[in-house]
Amino acid sequence: MSVDAEPLDRLRQRTSEKWRAYPADVLPLFVAEMDYPLAEPIAAALHAAVDRSDTGYVGPERGMESAFAEHARERWGWNVAQAQVRTSTDIGVVVVEALRRLIAPGDRVVITPPVYPPFFAYVPEAGGVVEEVPLVDDGATWSLDLPGLERAFAEGARALLLCNPHNPLGLVHPREDLVAVADLASRYGVHVVSDEVHASLTHGDAAFTPFLSVSDAARRVGIAAHSASKAWNLAGLKCAFFVTAGDEMATLVRDLPIEIEERTSLFGRIATEAAYREGLPWLDGALDAIEGNRRLLTALLAEHVPEARYREPRASYLAWVDLRALGWGDDPAQRILAETKVALGNGPAFGRPGIGHARVNLACSPEVLTEAVTRIGRMRD
Predict the structure, then answer these.
(1) β partners of residue 361
(2) Largest CB tally within 10 Å, which of 19, 26, 202, 239?
(3) What is the rounded distance in angstroms from the CA atom of residue 56 to the CA atom of residue 280?
(4) For residue range 335-365, what is the model confidence (pLDDT) as tens digits?
(5) Vertex 50, ends 48 and 51: CA angle to 5°?
């Protein structure tokens, strides 16, 4: 099915961050929200819940867990035990609560910048200390720095917070790298929390590999964080979940305080189940639109900002653009906003490797993307 972005006049009626953070004359391509209409099966499920006044606490119903397990099997060939899925409010809570139980206060936790900015906050919230092992950029692609990870593990880091697929690059980690990470973690007594919220947004020319699927070592050391929030634009409905595949990690998650699960939104569970059971045609249409925009951005930058360096993502709807050659400062998004009224993601927020970069949201109409890049191109005049 075709999925098209809604017109700007309708989008500006939304009250979410993307449409309220800036004045109405700013084109917002910064935060990870989609401009597409809500998938009809999800909207229908939520309307039905309202019609039956189903607005209470989450109950013992486990339809969402089985829906995710079916999605994982059909989409990624990953057999997930329904009993090893436990919900909470959002990915951040899943990550923080997992880390709290995997590390001691003051332990070092590795992250791999440029990476999703909240990672820098999740670690201290869980009682840890951030240790950065930046991704390797060979000029053609990015990859995990496996020797760097081994050094960090050997020197006492106790956990790795992995982004898989990797935000902001749209990097889909190869299976062999994930196997190597699991082996290193097992060897050095390190645990891995894998944020896989962008997994369902893997593009047609890539294949997502769940961390917990790669080896027995991964299943022993790992906990995965999943949600339908990114793929179906459901962040405001507050539902994410822990996934485990080994006995020790399953026990750890099962022993979490019940309140962590009970804070899940009932509407979030309802919407998530509808997304996994009935939302795949919509998702495939959205991915077609995103992949069209990732190619369009290549052409637009070549025409209007030829000094920019950009590699098309293979997952998600976020594009990472290197603007250092233009001399627009450490945070070019600030200057772009001031001069063109286009809001992009601020590169330095993703760590030191983000200096001189900006993140662009591709889940918009081709017309909005074209207008944004055209405006940016005028800064060169």
Answers:
(1) 318
(2) 239
(3) 28
(4) 999 999 999 999 999 999 999 999 999 999 9
(5) 60
SS3 state at 111: strand
Instruction: Map residue 104 onto helix, strand or coil.
Output: coil
**Can you tell me the distance from the alpha carbon of 241 to that of 81, in angstroms, rounded to the nearest whole number?**
13
CA atoms within 13 A on the CB side of 60: 0
pTM of the model: 0.97
| Residue range 50-66, pLDDT digits in tens | 999 999 999 988 899 99
> Strand, helix or coil at 226?
strand
- Please name the residue that has the structure tokens 């050095």: 188
What is the greatest pairwise CA distance in the chain?
Answer: 61
* 1 contact partners, CB below 8 Å, separation of at least 6: 281, 282, 284, 285
Q: Are 230 and 316 in contact (CB under 8 A)?
A: yes
Instruction: Compute, in degrees rounded to 10, the torsion defined by CA atoms 180, 181, 182, 184.
Output: 80
- Cα 66–Cα 71–Cα 74 angle in degrees, nearest 5: 125
Residue 71 structure tokens:
């999605």
